[in-house]
Request: fold
Amino acid sequence: MENILFANASKELVALTDLIKESIHGTEFEGHVFYVGGCVRDLILNHPLNDVDICVDIPNGGIKFATFMATKHNCYVEGSNPVTFKAYGTAKFQLFNHPLLGDMEIECVQTRKEQYHKDSRNPSTVFGTIDEDAQRRDLSINSLYYNISSERLIDPSGLGLDDLKNGVIRTPNDADVVFQDDPLRILRVIKFSTRYGWDIEKNTWFGMLNNAFRITIVSQERITTEISKMLVGYKPSTAIMKLYFCGILDKVMTDVYEMAKAKPNDLFLHTMKVLDMVQPKLEHRLAALFHDIGKVVYDTQNPKLDEFSAEIAEIDLKRMKLPNYVTDSVRNIVKNHRYFSAIQYGKMPSDKQIRKFIHDCKDDLVPTLDLMQSNLLNEGAEPKIILALFNKVEELVQKDDARKIKLPITGKDLIEKFNLKTSPKIGVLLDHLRDAYFENPNITKEECFAIAEEKLKNI
Reply:
């Protein structure tokens, strides 16, 4: 494979391309097998490939080609390789016996045209030509084809290559039709324009505005997948702003929309700055997006503000059907991110306070510190005092990691020592002893009993 398009391609893709070209030579598939969509786009842009999509312009070509490749290379297993989806004419296969490609999952589909129905984004599909296949795709830059046999790049819409060159995001067909058929494509436009920092073509933008209301027919899972990708990309604030201005944000993230439309908009602008500053990881970005959400309706001086924001975040993320571990993490980060807000006035916390913070953050310590830093910097705190705090946190984590707190006594010990019955009183005593631990991580069993005995006098 010496084609310039593959000059920086992975050795796996080069090997796959050579193998397919050789395998289909002299067969019905020669000249009819194409790389398509994001695969071709990323090859042209010299970006890493996440997956490989193949289309075959023969009726039922995806399933036929997958079966042919699996059989030819002694990998065919009835019912499992290839895995076929007859309703959509698609198939997935693996070349288990190949030393380089054995772990690669390859998806194949026939070129097709689609018929959409008013209340669904799931079309009925039939075989179509390359031109018809290109017209149904979401973006011009995703409607490019590479003929593996002829090594020829094909741009059926006549727009894809120019849009890649000029940095333009547009639909390959009438935007109103494209977004009416599948409103999820509105989110994909925003995702790609934000990822690349490219402009959205005027008629494409108008099509988005006209069809934003149809996003309600898309499953929450698909919406959340696209929004999650936007959030972990470059400058996620741009994506949030585009969701707002095209009329989607109020339908997919209601509380963030309420913050965006509030006047004055200082809170929203602050949130967008923090959002862009934290690390590009989903929990970090979601926590940044929701860290001040409670201020939209709550007294900003209320000591329970962060807990309220955390509750809103939890409700909204559950509505978005994010995994529980993500929701739980974001709630914990938001709840604890303002733990040391007083340091912006030059007041450093005690070792006891820091240990308690470390304990409360548990496994979310790093993302909480990330949000804390971004928030404090945007509120005017001195970088040197933030650095001093973080150095102290690191020192105490290394010295006596309070996330793994283990008291030298248990509730059972307290019951036996003081002849107590099982009751909420035991929990009160253990909480008091944990507080003593934060003061002195080397506390002994005898010291614990002495502290518990004193506490019992006041319960």
